Amino acid sequence: MARREITQYFDDIDGTPLTDDQVHTVRFSVDGSDYIMDLSEDNATRFLELLAPYVKAAQPAPAARKSRTRATGGAKRLNSRRIRQWAQEQNIEVSDRGTIPKHIIEAYNEAHSS
Description:
The chain has helices spanning about 40-55, 75-90, 100-110; strands at about 10, 15-20, 25-30, 35-40. It is an alpha+beta fold. It has two domains: about 10-55, Wheat Germ Agglutinin (Isolectin 2), domain 1; about 70-110, Irregular (Dihydrolipoamide Transferase). The longest helix is centred in the middle third of the chain and has 17 residues, at about 40-55. It is extended. The model has no long low-confidence stretch (mean pLDDT about 85). Keywords: DNA-binding.
């Protein structure tokens, strides 16, 4: 029996269902605590507009030293979603979150190479 898991995203502010293409993940920090929200484009824009005067008045914090560099942001998230979706379509078991196993990424790249 084949099993297919579907991930459904919801706007963290108003609960609106979102497709993969509609999700805007917003990360921010306040007083040393890090936060993350999945928002619609409208709510993400509103949030950033509300913060704009505070960001304009603030000074950038010194960059923290990191032991390694990691790719982050929209491009990586979008690629991960595409890989997960492809793996599920191929009946390859893959988790909805976390690191995608190297063999799945390699299989995806091989299937999509020109």
